[in-house]
Fold each of these.
Amino acid sequence: MTRSKKARSCELTRQTKETNVKLSLNLDGVGESRINLSDEFFKHMLDTLAKHASFDLVINASGDIAHHLIEDVAITFGKGLRDALGDDPIDRVATSVVPMDEALVLVSVDLIDRPYVKVEVPDLMFEHFLRSFAMESRATIHSQVIRGQDNHHIIEATFKALGLSLKKATRRSDLLMSTKSKVEWKRKG
């Protein structure tokens, strides 16, 4: 069976009293990113994730405080991922283990429409990012620090492993990877 190769991309804006986030996402990209926000380490993590996922990602974001900015970027990115995926079958589940110097981190994802998060990240803001991203993308995400001492290395290895897992999980598939078949919603009225 040959499936259409429709674009798996989206552009969206999320604007609140606290933040303004504009996102462009192409799941079938080459890992190029242009991230414009005030937090340089967060920018570096988003660049890292995009590179390892092979997503083309553009984010322009501003906000009143770091907490709101990180949360709203995560929500926008999660919704963008869900919108870009559409309804075509994907591999759905993937696990990656990434070393970075003394750190070794495992990340598993399931893009199943059942959000759940159990992550080990040595920074509450990045834990919050992963939780908000998972809830809006409706993904299950687990991470485990197998070893590591340097928080920078642990966080960066987590974002690399998440990117690699998303790259694998978002691959197009000829099979619907579910025993439930396709879920269909019906609305009254």
Amino acid sequence: MKQAVSNLPPFGDGGAHPDSVEYAVYIRDQANACLHKRKVDQEGVELYIKVLQKGMFTKLLKRDGSSFRNWTDFCLTEHPYGLGRSPQDIETIITEARDPQTIALSVVPLNQPEIGNGKAGPGRGHKTVDNVNRLKGGNSAEYRIRKLARDHEDIYERLKAGEFQSVAAAERAAGIQKVKEKSLVDQIIFLLEKASRSERKTIAAWIKDNA
């Protein structure tokens, strides 16, 4: 029996050069991790898919060592070599990640009291945000909606009903005065400061391809 051939490196490297095969493997593996979790990491999917779509996927090979013909071929190929999802499914996941009503229908309220209100928090060294989700942090739409669900149940129910076009609008209705619309540049800088070294490389590669 002819043995399957693959010249892919066994592991990707998030610290490799953004144009390298090792980095392409890393991005593909991160995209797969987001897509195939029990609960799909929608925001993570969007981050990594954008990089792969700009030609990064063409650096990757199938199990038999052949090249991917096109984006659809890459998407439909079973993971870990491809993404194991149709392009349409992936686009739907990304679209839903931007929709506050969709997020509100899937989240659960925060159980841990917020630190800084005179109540106990989880303590230093017990954060639950992993590397893939680091860009989200405490300012992600999901986190903010979970806070609304915990502290402003009436507003949360209106958000689930589709009454608000954005999380910020729901927060204003809840009377959260600290909410302030940031410029796009401020938002990008804020996220970059929270990003890991490998995530910054991912973003830099995307900017290079889209500049």
Amino acid sequence: MAEPPLTGGCNCGGVRYEISAPLVSASYCHCKRCQRCTGTAASPEAGVVPGSFRIVSGEELLRAWSAGGESFAEVFCSSCGSLLWSRSPHDAEVISVRLGTFDGDPGIRPGHRQWLESAAPWEPLPDEGLERFQRGVIREGDD
């Protein structure tokens, strides 16, 4: 595990964040929304302990988009477009941070793949031994 605080931010450097506790879980999300937000077949992301995430700078640059209903809001930098994290529609403290936004090694590796029912047909799933779920996995606090 990496030693907190973990730090990260957007591509232009306008948004910076830090996380004061070790990450709780990590996964690859293959849902269609993540594919479209990232332009990739899957989005690697990590769950944050509620209350441990803090925006250090650039809060005024943040924008959020949600498909509505039960969908997590996708939070991004309005200056450079970097997709940074997503947050629960029920509790703004339930956050999943995109692994590519960390400054260094976040100290966690994806342990499963979720939303395989939406997996991109143009990229075969690797056989790396990770647990697989056809739909999403609910983390504690996500309900």
Amino acid sequence: MPAETRGIQLNASAIAHLPRLLPMEYTPGELAAELGCHAHQIRQTALPLGCPHRRDARGRLWIVGSQFRDWYRATQVRRRHPMEDNEAWCLRCKQPQQMVGPFEVTPRHGSAELVKGRCGVCGTKVNRLRTQATRPP
């Protein structure tokens, strides 16, 4: 996936700090310190991808915190992999694969159940949490 479509990648700690950003102007260093990431990640990655910013008469760079937060959330793409009822995500193949038996089904909280099987391609153990709605008849 090209970098233009997925946006800047922040770690979980920086994402947790996004709601704390105020509607005030930050320099890239101040913004990075507030988020707990590196300033070069703001300057070299976010700005070329279209992060809203302005330059003052002296050429200094300013980024409004609330605009950065909104821009970050708008540029993130959730990668979903739709799966059939008999498929699970294989960590070795890094894609959904058909499960082969024997299956072990364990009831979980509410209407969910944990299904354990093996990957049909590489034979690795795979697990899938499915709900009542996706359970085959």
